[in-house]
């Protein structure tokens, strides 16, 4: 049962690779979805966030106000560290539970952890393979503007706020170049799948 970490910068094509691997039969565990799940209304994580950051980061219906929380922590390393200290342990525990459930369900499953913050938070976990989706920063900036509707400045800030491409590539066992066409990304992903299935 290979346990694969899939990471990449914002707009790097990571989700495209994850979807392709899922089509082949991989079990994809989405770190972003786990973050949302552990911060549901009524959760211990959300309660702790409210205690640390104040009730103004909670909407009237009891959900997390992501924009309000983001404005508190974005660009403030100390506040971000406080938030991560609350969220990361819960995400780690829940992701481990999902990995184990996938393996219990199918001991030969290929489990892919789709995790944006691998370098920042999980690089030392016992992965069988680390796959990095890579596209040049300029390509990613253009995708953020054209496909996600960000303005130029916001796009650059998002990219600059993440670890560098060099830091990501330094931990990679496999780099999938997503700067070209969708077909080219799929072909590289298909080749990775063949490698995984052969063990």
Descriptive report:
With 199 residues, the chain is of the alpha/beta class. The chain folds into two domains: 1-26 and 110-199, P-loop containing nucleotide triphosphate hydrolases (Rossmann fold), CATH 3.40.50.300; 34-107, P-loop containing nucleotide triphosphate hydrolases (Rossmann fold). The protein has ten helices and five strands, in the order βαβααααβαβαααβα. It has helices at residues 14-24, 31-38, 44-53, 66-73, 77-105, 118-122, 137-148, 152-160, 165-170, 182-198; strands at 3-8, 27-30, 111-114, 129-134, 174-177. It has a five-stranded parallel sheet, with helices on both faces.
Number of domains: 2
SSE succession = EHEHHHHEHEHHHEH
Relevant CATH superfamily of the largest domain: P-loop containing nucleotide triphosphate hydrolases
Multimeric organization = single chain
Q: Which CATH architecture of the largest domain?
A: 3-Layer(aba) Sandwich
- The residue fraction in helices comes out at 55-70%
What is the name of the CATH class of the largest domain?
Alpha Beta
Number of helices: 10
What is the fold named in CATH at topology level of the largest domain?
A: Rossmann fold
Distance between the termini: 9 Å
Instruction: Characterize the biggest β-sheet.
Output: 5 strands, parallel
Beta-strand percent range: 5-15%
């Amino acid at each position: 049962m290979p346990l694969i970490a899939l990471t990449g910068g914002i707009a790097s094509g990571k989700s495209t690779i994850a979807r392709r691997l899922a089509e082949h039969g991989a079990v994809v565990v989405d770190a972003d979805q786990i973050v949302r799940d552990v911060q549901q209304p009524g959760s211990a994580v959300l309660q702790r966030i409210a205690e640390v950051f104040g009730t103004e980061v909670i909407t009237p219906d009891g959900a997390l106000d992501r924009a309000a929380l983001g404005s508190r922590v974005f660009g403030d390393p100390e506040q971000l560290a406080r938030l991560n200290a609350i969220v990361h342990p819960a995400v780690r525990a829940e992701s481990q539970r999902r990995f184990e459930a996938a393996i219990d369900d199918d001991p030969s499953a290929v489990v892919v952890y789709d995790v944006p913050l691998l370098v920042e938070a999980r690089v030392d976990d016992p992965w069988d393979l680390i796959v990095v989706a890579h596209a040049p920063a300029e390509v990613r900036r253009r995708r953020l503007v054209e496909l996600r509707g960000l303005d130029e400045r916001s796009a650059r800030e998002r990219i600059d706020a993440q670890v560098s491409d060099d830091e990501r590539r330094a931990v990679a066992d496999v780099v999938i170049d997503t700067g070209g066409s969708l077909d080219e990304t799929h072909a590289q992903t298909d080749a990775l799948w063949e490698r995984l299935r052969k063990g």
